[in-house]
Amino acid sequence: MKKSKKVFLLILAAVILFGGLYATTYIPKKIIAIDPSEVSKIEIFDGNRGDLITVTEPEEKEHIVSNLNNSTFALRKM
After folding, report:
1. pLDDT tens, 3-26?
2. What does the buried/exposed string (b/e) look like for 4-28 if buried means 16 or more CB atoms within 10 Å of the residue's CB?
3. Is residue 77 predicted with pLDDT exceeding 70?
4. Which of 24, 34, 36, 73 could form a disulfide with 62 if both were Cys (CB 3.0 to 4.6 A apart)?
5. What is the pTM of this model?
6. Pairing between β-strand 51-55 and β-strand 42-46 as defined by DSSP bridges
């Protein structure tokens, strides 16, 4: 195999590798994955006013944890 062909294949492999790694940043990732029954309480702190809210009601905890479980994010570079 000629030297120029080997160099071309090496560069092509590097481009495919880095392209694949970059593409993984667009895959949505879960924030949390916990069972709502495992949560005993949720504390929410409002940094603007300094208020602390404690959620202990089972329905409210389940609603908050379910929403967090369904939330995803993706790292997109601009």
Report:
1. 888 999 999 999 999 998 888 878
2. eeeeeeeeeeeeeeeeeeeeeeeee
3. no
4. 36
5. 0.59
6. antiparallel
